[in-house]
Amino acid sequence: MNGKWTHENFQKFDAENPDIYGYFKGFALEASKYRKKYSAKSIFHRIRWETMIRGKDSEFKIDDGWISHYSRKFLQEYPQLDGFFETRVRKHSYHTNAGDADE
Predict the structure, then answer these.
(1) Which residues, 6 or more positions from 80, have their beta carbon under 8 angstroms from its beta carbon?
(2) Using CB atoms within 10 A as the burial measure, which of 25, 74, 77, 89 is most buried?
């Protein structure tokens, strides 16, 4: 499947922006102490808050198209939290290496 949010583009984006996964992982682990399920999109909103408001980086931008990639990366790293983020299976997917499909 072609497009901006392919697995290959995610790997490149993730390598160029390692702080994003650091934030994502930290906030997801924090949320997992209080909830059995949580929204990866809410974590993205918190990343935006932390970088744009607290970090004073008004130029920071991150597309929602990466949410499903970060949630799957997190779930692969923390299999004990399987089900923490809801993932969906679609007929066509950007997640060729993730074992399941797009959210």
Answers:
(1) none
(2) 74
